[in-house]
Amino acid sequence: MKRAIITGATGAVGIALIHELITNNIEVLVFCREGSKRNEKIPKHELVSLKVCSLDQLSTVKNDTGNKYDFFFHLAWAGTTGSERNDMYLQNQNIQYALDAVGAANRFGCKVFIGAGSQAEYGRVESKLKPDTPTFPENGYGYAKLCAGLMTRTYAHQLGMEHIWVRLLSVYGPGDGNQSLVMSVVNSLKSGEVPRCTKGEQIWDYLYSGDAARAFRLAAEKGVDGKTYVLGSGHGRLLAEYILDIRDVVNPEMEIAFGDVPYGPNQVMFLCADISELEKDTGWMPSIDFKRGIETIVE
Fold first, then answer.
1. Which superfamily does CATH assign the domain made up of 174-205+234-298 to?
2. Which listed residue, of 7, 152, 195, 216, carries a Cα 20 to 30 Å from 131's Cα?
3. For 114-136, how does the pLDDT look when each residue is reduced to its tens digit (9 = 90+)?
4. Per residue in 252-298, pLDDT tens?
């Protein structure tokens, strides 16, 4: 039986990844923060076990499980929203934590380290994002993700492990944070409040968390060592169309206040993944369309 370790397991991708792994008979060890209420989201299953290990404990965590593991999925990251994205000291600490995660993966016997990158590593680009698209991040979060991807690759190779870096675009699904656009619109519509949005002219690429989790598993099992993959649906649509899809599922009679919210500084107006490299190497393709994903959240 294969075994995997996950950090950051209580987000939308992490929860979906646990389900994906146990569905494929892979034993999962979840590194979790002691006392966190989010731990209640972790699926209870005979193949899932928990180990107290916060980000600042990765450098010292010891393998006392009696097992060796195959894959280490590092999804955890501090300061992903709001002003913390430009807290340079916090984002710099995330780079250290990512390197600590590589060291922990080595101590637990892992053969492959898989890290979660971000579209923020690219900055603003007017074409589909490819693994070799030039990177010009514009905030501390993007700087740190880019640096973490490069440094963990070198460190993993120094320790004899394979390394895969997956740059995520916009993932939604059960377990998503209430501050995300999708969940804020869903919650407003469910409570009968008119969602206030930008004009919605951005071209965006949303991917359901279950599809993202399957991509992470296949990247771990079939991905090429040293490669970076871009993860999205591969299809861009107007953000306004996504919002109207949410409205049609949750509360079809409700109006949407398009244009009530101004675009932010350095607003990304085009965001779409080129998934051809991931498809070629792993056979992965998305299978859940956006409306069906929203129906799953509401259900």
1. UDP-galactose 4-epimerase, domain 1 (3.90.25.10)
2. 7
3. 999 999 999 999 999 999 999 99
4. 999 999 999 999 888 999 999 999 999 999 999 999 999 999 999 99
Phi and psi at 257, nearest 5°, equal -85, 70
CB atoms < 10 A from the CB of 181, how many?
19
Residue given tokens 């120094």 in the structure block: 158
Tally of CA atoms within 13 A in the half-sphere of 107 that contains its CB:
14
Q: Find, among 129, 125, 204, the residue nearest to 166 by Cα.
A: 129
DSSP 27-67: EEEEEE-TT-GGGGGSPP-TTEEEEE--GGGTTT----SS-
Q: Which fold has domain 3-170+206-231?
A: Rossmann fold (3.40.50)
State the CB neighbour count (10 A cutoff) for residue 143. Answer: 19
In whole angstroms, what is the distance from residue 144 CA to residue 155 CA? 16
Residue-wise DSSP of 149-211: HHHHHHHHHHTT-EEEEEEE-EEE-TT--TTSHHHHHHHHHHTTPPPEE-----EE-EEEHHH
Query: Quick check: helix, strand or coil at residue 217?
Result: helix
Structure tokens at 79: 């300061």
Q: Which residues contact 46 (CB under 8 A, 6 or more apart)?
A: none
- What does the radius of gyration of the chain's CA atoms come to, in whole angstroms? 19
The encoded tokens of residue 277 equal 């490299």
The two structure tokens encoding residue 211: 């599809």
Domain range annotation of the chain: 3-170+206-231, 174-205+234-298
270, 267, 256: which is closest to 204 by C-alpha?
270
- Kindly report, residue by residue over 49-71, the tens digit of the pLDDT: 999 999 999 999 999 999 999 99
Contacts of 131 (CB under 8 A, 6+ apart): 167, 227, 228, 229, 230, 277
